[in-house]
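Protein: Double-cubane-cluster-containing anaerobic reductase
Species: Peptostreptococcus equinus
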Amino acid sequence: MADYKEMWKDLGMDLETHDQLCEVLPQAFTDVYLSQENRPENMAYYDFVVSEIHGVRPAELIEAQKKGKKVFGSFCIFVPDEIVFGADAIATGLCGGSQFWVPGGEKVLPTNTCPLIKASVGARLDKTCPFFRIADMYIGETTCDGKKKAWEILGEDVPMYVMDLPQMKRRKDYKAWAEEITDFKNTVEEFTGNKVTADSLKNSIKLINDKRRALQRLSNFRKNINIPISGKDVLLISQIAFYDDPTRFTQMTNALCDELDKRVEEGVSVFPKGTKRILLAGTPLAIPNWKIHNIIETSGGAVVCEEMCTGTRYFENLVDESKDGLEDQIDVLAQRYMGINCACFTPNNDRIEDIKRLCKEYKIDGVIDLNLKFCNLYDTEGFLVERELKKDGIPVLGIETDYTDSDVQQLRTRIGAFIEMLD
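Structure follows.
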């Protein structure tokens, strides 16, 4: 990584502690990613992004701020980036995926809070992540109780706006979410000084849809019998999608897909014939959480689909681009986002149907239902998910983990036995 110490210093970061993180990440990335064989050449872009993860993109965001743009940081795929870009501002993801940040979060949160929330709070309060220092405003949401309380704590340190997501999907809930998006638009307009117009929102809807289209195209390659790209690589791309420049990300992902087209024509697979095809369902995997994919793909399995916020929930279903009026555009935004089947909703039978559908589309041999420790929503819903999949004869393994490596051997044993059982 180039020398960004002056930039980090200007952001008020704890350089000494941050250096400890910078020392660990390159080796972890080498072990998990660079040790793979026969990777697509266009993965070089994403490798570069990770090698400069706290440098290149933060520098771009700071440069944009110098030109008057605001940066909004969010933690959930329900926050509509279209509104932010429609106000000529920039949206970036902020979810923490490293154990390195968890102790910082535990200084102010109960230990029995999920690691994603603890890491996100720790990254801000310990001043060890430039993205958390750069964002001018954080956008929270009410998808779980842990997050709602965390926003109150973060709100003492940084401007915070919280969107109230309905927990059911009745007609009045769709209307309520459209009203929330309108309120969010008004807040963004006031904070940036820029109006979201019908034209600017139409353009930003297409901008984010294009990113979704590229991710859909990438995901479709994994439906082939010959799998031209590893699950680990696709996970990395999904994680980078949350904070990279959307136009550049779309271009680079489509360039990768062009290469994968040729691989499919030539019958190239990065896995041996007969490798068991695994669908991962459950809680999101924020960067740099690569643990479960690495265990599966070094234990005889191939991850070919993620029914997660860092997977199909993020890119499936586009926003209707045909609307010209602002009110209609906000309505179709509400419809698209309310179509996400998060465990925060009740009832949530559509999520189970989604998983069954994905099992057919991706020719799945088995499902691993993953829960981040202390995520009560997905943990509780896991009972229904696993029961219904078993009714359909779909093998399923439920596992719970956190960001530490203390359970790697135990998970490797359980996952390896599950994959063997699929034979």
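Remarks: The first strand starts at residue 71 and ends at 74.
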